[in-house]
Sequence to fold (379 residues):
Amino acid sequence: MSTCKLPNARGHYFAPTYRQAKSIAWDYLLHFTSHIPGMVYNKTDLTATFPLGQRIQLVGADNPDSFRGQYSDSAVLDELAMMPPRLWTEVVRPALADREGCALFIGTPAGRNAFYDMYDRAERLEDWGRCLLTVEDTDIINPKELRALRQEMADYEYDQEMMCSFQAAIRGAYFGKAMSQAEEDGRICDVPYDPALPVYTCWDLGIADATAVIWLQMSPGGQVRAIDAEEYHGASLPDIITEIDKKPYQRYAMHIAPHDIRVRELGTGTSRIEVAAANGIRFDVCRNMPLMDGIDATRNLIAKMWFDQNKCRDLVNYLQLYRCDFNQKTGVPSTRPLHDHTSHMADALRMFAVEMGQRPGGAGWVSGINYDMLDRMAV
Fold:
């Protein structure tokens, strides 16, 4: 902050959630500034204001839109791999632009996701730099303690947390192995739209959260091709349908939505399935299936999938990161997934896996497709 020549400088520290920002950095902020006379603190907003008007604020990345409209002279994004990618491109980067601010990204790898992409690009971008420091490079931890960690941690945990490996598996990731296998098989590549095949969409409908839509095609040989994926933030269902109409895809065979699309709004008495129908989309409602069975069905589906590496980049990243929650005190895994920015795409794909597949424990995900039937269904 002392290097900024503009008045009322602003510095921001971002953690994946507000709670994490407070627990990680608030005590440090107090410790390193409390000796300065005239400091003003706001524990609710997590701000420390200096006597001359400069300010440091701690921010949670779980609500990116709450930061819109602010300016920043310097930003630190801690654990970038666990943050929505759009936080940087749509929110923080514009906030730095008019004051020519700077940013620092730090964190532990969690697979080849948006953090990996940024680390990779930093080597080629002007005025950017990067640094990878393993525990062996820093000498912060006593060698005896390191040997104990080696014995107590799984190999993938040690490689990720201590050796900064982007190839290490992610703890609790439901689809980590399946996505790694897709990458090894070369199934994350260019996957063009084939006008001869019907197109499916599967949805996860958000109100306060994002609405996720995935476009898929199925080949006669049993391949399931993810050709496109989008998230829509702060948009109404009619607006999303308008954007979808601009896509070049034709011969839609089915639009699959979760069962809560039938719920009627209290103010209007109209359900979103009726709103969609009035705007030109007839939804098929996904049948109910226990959540973990649906996750198993999705895992089986991914084994047959090809992903377009450009249009489905976020989908690939989120499927790699989608994971179970853990009890913060005991470390015991929860029976439910962690709800974060990765959930929407994963839930949308689960709709397709459940509706189009067979229940786990049977023959696995369906591979025989009746194309005569699909041609009759295609709109």
Q: What stands out?
A: The first helix runs from residue 18 to 33. The chain has three domains: 10-131, 132-170, 183-377. The radius of gyration is 23 Å. Residues 359-379 have pLDDT under 50 and may be disordered.
